[in-house]
Specification:
48% of the residues lie in helices and 12% in strands. It has 16 helices and 7 strands. The protein has helices at 3-11, 14-26, 93-119, 125-130, 159-162, 169-175, 199-207, 212-221, 223-226, 231-240, 250-253, 262-271, 276-283, 291-314, 318-324, 328-337, and strands at residues 39-41, 45-51, 57-63, 66-71, 78-86, 141-147, 183-185. The longest helix is centred in the N-terminal third of the chain and has 27 residues, at 93-119. Strands 1-4-5-6-7 form a 5-stranded mixed β-sheet, sandwiched between helices. Strands 2-3 form a two-stranded antiparallel sheet. The chain starts with a helix and ends with a helix. The model has no long low-confidence stretch (mean pLDDT 82). It has 341 residues and is α/β, with parallel strands linked by helices.
Length: 341
């Protein structure tokens, strides 16, 4: 299954979609807060036909990642809310969002035109030309760009940004409307614990994946979140943290409740050696020449060695510990044998 399919499937869930928009846009305000029951899916495919000077027809089509309709919010009949998922920076994102939104507005106008034709409504000259009655209205469209890259978003945040620094933006403001976009960098959310769905668990994994020791410790400290993670959340986490090996363990770590045990999955990966190299690297304090990194790695290594010495002393195997103390490979094998890493 492709990464974008897994992510779209995960965020298309009404509970998570509502949770995300409540956090980003409606800020948990009770009178504006979205409930999952108020959301409904609409066709993500939008398009329009344009006549060329030669009489030919050119069709423009765009497929949104996720789009839903929400009723009775902010004093209007409904809003259309979209999400665009980005693993990488897109340097034409304002134009892309503007086109998506424009096509969605165009779909609404076309729907009105079809309704009036079907009902055979009487329309004046101007109304007939536009396909809308003077009293017709369309609904606002809002798009959120959800960015999962580890680097800072350095792309344009508005249409004006795409024009460069040399243009007179004060002049532009007088004559050309801007089109800003909204970008959420998942890796930078500081208050992700406030999410009410398993978004807090998935984002927690993303933000604590930089070192395997820290990653494993984080999961162990939050076992309640990860011992029975929903299947689509587990799959999304595997994509986000770049550990697609987790997908191969689905049958092994499935729980009796039908969820997935992320704690067990990480342990299985360690046993199979998928993470062993990373853990050993931390044990030896190999931080690619950075002195501070080496000191941290050595401190972790000493802690693990101390725990191993204690276990082997309790079993009366001090001589064996001393015999292999200077052999890194043997020490790594003993650490695995005693399930210390």
């Amino acid at each position: 299954m492709k990464n974008d399919v897994i992510i779209n499937k995960y965020l298309s869930d009404n509970d998570r979609f509502a949770d995300l928009y409540n956090h980003l846009v409606f800020c948990g305000e009770r009178d504006k807060k979205i409930t999952p029951e108020e959301l409904s899916d609409i066709n993500p495919l939008s398009g329009m036909a344009l006549r060329t000077g030669k009489g030919d027809t050119q069709v423009i089509k765009r497929n949104r990642d996720i789009v839903k309709k929400i009723s009775n919010k902010t004093g209007i009949c409904f809003m259309i809310l979209g999400i665009e998922n980005q693993m990488n920076v897109h340097y034409a994102m304002p134009l892309r969002c503007m086109l998506y939104d424009a096509l969605t507005y165009n779909d609404q106008v076309n729907a009105l035109r079809k309704m009036h034709n079907r009902q055979k409504d009487k329309m004046g000259g101007e109304e007939y030309l536009s396909g809308m009655l003077k009293t017709d209205t369309i609904s606002p469209v809002m798009t959120q760009v959800i960015y999962y890259g580890e680097e800072e978003w350095d792309g344009p945040m508005s249409l004006y940004d795409m024009f460069g620094d040399k243009v007179d933006k004060e002049f532009l403001k007088m004559h050309i409307p801007d089109y800003p976009i909204h970008v959420l960098n998942i890796c930078k959310i500081k208050d992700y614990e406030k999410f009410e769905t398993d978004l807090n668990a998935v984002i927690g994994l993303i933000q604590n994946k930089n070192t395997m020791q820290g990653f494993k410790k984080y999961i162990e400290e939050h076992k309640e979140l990860y011992k029975n993670l929903a299947l689509d959340a587990y799959e999304a986490a595997a994509v986000f943290i770049h550990k697609k090996q987790l997908l191969d363990l689905e049958n092994i770590v499935r729980t009796e409740e039908g969820g997935m045990d992320m704690c067990k999955a990480i342990d299985e990966m360690i046993l199979e050696g998928e993470l062993r190299g990373e853990l050993r690297g931390e044990l030896r304090g190999e931080q690619r020449g950075e002195q501070r990194g080496e000191q941290i790695g050595e401190a972790r290594g000493l802690d693990l060695m101390g725990r191993l010495a204690k276990r082997m002393w309790e079993e009366g195997k001090v001589k064996k510990f001393i015999e292999f103390a200077c052999e890194q490979k043997k020490m790594a094998e003993l650490l695995e044998e005693y399930e210390i890493i």
